[in-house]
Amino acid sequence: MAMSEHGFVVIGAQSVFFSITNLKTLVEVERGAYPVSIGEDIFATHEIQPGTVDQLVVALQTIDQLMTDYGVKSYDIIGTHSFFEAKNSQFVRDQLFSRTGRPVATLTLSQESYYRTQAVLGKFPHFDQITQKGTVLIDISSGSVELTAFANGEFGFSRNLSLGPLRVFEVMGDLQRTVPNPTEVMRDYIDSRLADFMRLLPKNQHYPHMILMGSALSVFNTLIPSGEEMVETDHEGFRLIYQEVVQASDQYLSDHFDLTPTQTAQVLPTVLLVYRLLKTLNAERVWISNLKLLDGIELSAAGEAGSQAAAIDPTREILISAQNLADRYQVDPKHRDSTVNFALQLFDRLKKLHGLGKRERLLLQIAATVNDVGSYVDTHKHYEHSEYIINSSELMGLTMPEQRMVAAIARYHSSDTPQTDLSDLHELNSTRRLIIAKLSALLRVADSLDASRQQKIQKIRVSIQPTRVLLTATATDDVELERWTLQTKGEFFAIVFGLPIELKGKTRL
């Protein structure tokens, strides 16, 4: 088997999915799934039971043998957020490692959202055409619902809600035995949770299209029979499904549609959730897709490997997510863009000093975009507010340590300086602390170059000299404020890189 083949394994709420994919061509050599319902354990007892752990071990061992048969020596095992919601997830993770020799990596909710978005961008038929009109991508897993908005062919924003059908069934389970109309109460419960997402939607944007995907949609395999990879229906077609499900008993659903007890429990919450979204958004067309998180992970890995088959920009949605956060907290767009521009120029022209790579450049760009969000709360010590806002937000595509790093860089872009030994960042390892220090030093300089908030400096030339780093600015006005600000903020640059940084300006009339 060629080295371009790579294995992927995802532990979801209902199954363990796997694939072997040629990263150069994005052709799947093998794909499958083993039904292991950790979701039922988690939502019933909040823990993964020993018997379920045994099933996971068997599934992983079987997949490992398959990987060996295909000659795949290295592959990734990823646990979704459903797996890590279990109170004993870390113990189970350790048990799986002890019994299979394979570690289970974690994903944040924002990473999962990123991979699902990559899946539809790269694999959904006519996606560009469909999203010219407002479109909401809805990924329904057992425990949560990810809602991602698109308009004019562009990603808008994403929001995760704890509205998965198994979770709703758990919360609402007692109602079916205690109230005369549990469906109406469940509808009100779902509507109350959707209110936050609806509040964030642009006021004048219509969303006539919906794309449904996710593990919980397996119930539609029988509700909407099709041998195709994608099913299309409309508002009226889904209304008929909704009426049939709402009026049916569990026994009828189980017998008529050949559903397991677990699927039967999820039918009403799933159909009700989708129908309420249809009504709320006034959507006209619905596409049901079998694309999964696994597809996005494959695409992302192919892109990182330089595959021409993965013809999507892997950072586009990440940067849009950061811009959306900045817009939400009313960051001055002109100063933001100026700071981003200078930060990236400094990064590119000072590579000999910092020695960092593409991912670190992206983190700097994100930090430069969102570093002033704290001013929305209070301009006094706004950098402290920026840190906790960033840590509490969903920045698509970042790992948890990366998001913590961006928050720390934003905090230290101002006058607040990390301790020289970076001991105040004890929760991050030494490598990440050093990256934070380097990127914070660069961001401080970039921010100083627009200290007046008037975008006086049009361009800069960067020169690394034996005793200093010299910035030569071409400006439309006097830059004394920028020079003075840099003298203060540049002290940390000198500590980190061992060279002072100075600004020389020339005014262009």
From TrEMBL:
It comes from the Bacteria. Transmembrane segments: none annotated. Residues 321-465 form the Ppx/GppA phosphatase C-terminal domain. Pfam families: Ppx-GppA, Ppx-GppA_III. InterPro entries: ATPase_NBD, GppA/Ppx_hydrolase, Ppx_GppA_C, Ppx_GppA_N. Residues 29-300 form the Ppx/GppA phosphatase N-terminal domain. Belongs to the GppA/Ppx family. PANTHER family: EXOPOLYPHOSPHATASE, RETROGRADE REGULATION PROTEIN 2. This is Exopolyphosphatase. It comes from Lacticaseibacillus suilingensis.
